[in-house]
Amino acid sequence: MTRFSLGILLAAVLFMLAGCGDSHDLATPEETGVLKVATRNGATTYYLDRHETPAGPEFDLTRRFAEAQGWEIEWSVFDSTSQVLEALESGKVHLAAAGLTRLPSRDQRFTPGPSHTDIVEQLVCHRDMRPLPRQLEELTDVEIRVTAASSYSQQLASLVNDHTGIAFEEDPRSTEVLLEAVANRTLDCTVADSNIVKMVRRHFPHLEVAMNLTAGSTLGWYLPDGQEALAGEARQWMNSDAGQAAIEAMNERYYAYIGEFDFVDLRTLNRRIDDRLPNFVDLFIEAEKNTGMSADLLAALAYQESHWDPSAVSPTGVRGIMMLTRNTAESLGVTNRLDPEAAIEGGARYLADRHARLPEDIPEPDRTYLALASYNIGRGHLLDARELARSLGKNPDSWEDMKEVLPLKADKRYYPKTRYGYARGYEPVHYVKRIRNYMDVIAPAIAPYEPAEGDMQTAQAPYGAASQAPDTSQDG
Questions:
Q1: Phi, psi at residue 116, to the nearest 5°?
Q2: How many other CB atoms are there within 10 angstroms of residue 82's CB atom?
Q3: Of 58, 89, 180, 305, which one is the catalytic site residue?
Q4: pLDDT-derived band of residue 318, with 50, 70 and 90 as boundaries?
Q5: Which of 162-171, 211-220, 288-297, 429-438 has the lowest mean pLDDT?
Q6: Residue 9: exposure state from Cβ atoms within 10 A (0-12, 13-18, ≥19)
Q7: Which parts of this chain are annotated as the region LT domain (predicted)?
Q8: Which of 218, 248, 249, 354 could form a disulfide with 374 if both were Cys (CB 3.0 to 4.6 A apart)?
Q9: Burial class (CB in 10 A: 0-12, 13-18, 19+), 210
Q10: Euclidean distance between CA atoms 202 and 217, whole angstroms
Q11: Rounded to 5 degrees, what are φ and ψ at 95?
């Protein structure tokens, strides 16, 4: 063979190798111990919390999967669905965990991984819109914008084919920004996944779900085309007891407590954030420095107790912004419960004490939720419930289990056997649920007042309350 022929052959081989998909060049996580994951910044996927620690439903679930395999994770965080899918298609990552709706077109383009969350796609409008569309036939002349390259645009495109008069436009803005535009009445309606709507409505109470556009969809992971082996591992783990427990933990942390509000609650809270919270925010931040209990947690607790009314008085004799009893105030050295500075500091120290008295090996955020329950119902009743949980084969360190056991303190089949007897055990369950909701809404309002992380010396914060996620969204 001539030197010329060898040159042509070598060039051809190099060309063929260059044409191979990058996914074949990406070393497997079994080889490197590193799982490369594409995701998006957003409240229902991945974000950095107030302590600059990664959080989010997709983050938690993917981390648990990687830990089960003994792998580290290398995250690639993008701003849009299209960027995530491009990274997947180019073979730059092993997995996309980005709140992706399962679609036939995506199933053909990529290797489907396991699904983890059931959702519906919802048409969202302003609650004062007249007429508020409740049927597809009523969408004529309604301005609808949806995030570009999302599952929403595919769903609406199919509706346009079946119903004359429906029109929509794709928009480069994120779903959360479009929902805000609807709340501000600069846009008639948009479409969003139900899990996104649940989170965002707490910040924009005027948002109204006009109708469901799908009977049901699922969110799940995708892998590059041809990566069946890794997809099989992911599906096997997700379907295992460990995977199902991870899904339950994800739902409990991010979604299960949402839904306690109604429109009036949310509207009142947002109004109080504007007209009352600024008067006390520095006191909550100072109390965080002194006790380690986060300012947004303390503010949410105070709102639950008094709606930030420093002169609040109940018929039972508790009073002040933290609604302290006389005995509790005296034990804390608070001489004037109507003094907001003294009351907030006292309430923070009392909550910190409830927290400190719980076993140190209880993980967060469960330990903080149990401390809140103790603040509400009393330490004795909480100890009763923890002992009852053990007798029933439940985990006394798990808030998910304890919120099932606490109501039994009002059940005559159980409370006569406890040391402290009857208690309205259902109250702390709702108490904690509402405070968690309040924290999510309040945290963004407090964030601008807080000093930089390195500038504030605090007691060790046991649990960074619900944190402000970036103003980006999940596009389906």
A1: -140, -20
A2: 14
A3: 305
A4: confident
A5: 162-171
A6: exposed
A7: 259-476
A8: 354
A9: buried
A10: 23
A11: -155, 145
Of the candidate CATH numbers 1.10.287.70, 3.40.50.150, 3.40.50.720, 3.40.190.10, the domain formed by 19-116+220-254 belongs to: 3.40.190.10
CB contact at 8 A, 198 and 441 = no
Residue pLDDT, tens place only, 147-182: 988 999 999 999 988 887 899 999 988 888 899 899
Helix %, strand %, coil % of the chain (to 5) = 50, 15, 35
Domain 121-215 has CATH 3.40.190.10: yes
pTM confidence score: 0.72
Residue 315: predicted pLDDT: 67
Q: Where are the domains of the chain?
A: 19-116+220-254, 121-215, 263-455
Which pairing describes strands 111-119 and 34-40: parallel, antiparallel, or unpaired?
Answer: unpaired
Q: Is 58 a catalytic residue?
A: no
Say which DSSP state 358 is in.
Answer: S
Question: Does 42 have pLDDT greater than 90?
Answer: no
Question: What end-to-end distance do the CA atoms of the chain give, in Å?
Answer: 57
263-455: CATH number:
1.10.530.10
Burial 337-363 (b: 16+ CB within 10 A, else e): beebbbbbbbbbbbbbbbbeebeeebe
Look up residue 417 and give its DSSP letter: G
- Judged against a pLDDT cut of 50, whether residue 461 lies above it is answered with no
DSSP alpha helices (H): ranges in 140-219?
151-162, 175-183, 194-201
**CA neighbours closer than 13 Å in the CB half-sphere of residue 390:** 7
Residue 6: is it exposed, middle or buried by C-beta count within 10 angstroms (0-12/13-18/19+)? exposed
* Fold: same for 19-116+220-254 and 121-215: yes
Phi, psi of 411, rounded to the nearest 5 degrees: -100, 120
DSSP, collapsed to helix, strand or coil, labels residue 299 as helix
How far apart are the C-alpha atoms of 164 and 314, rounded to whole Å?
58
Q: Which residues contact 260 (CB under 8 A, 6 or more apart)?
A: 430, 433, 434, 437
Q: Which amino acid is at 396?
A: P
* 453, pLDDT greater than 90: no
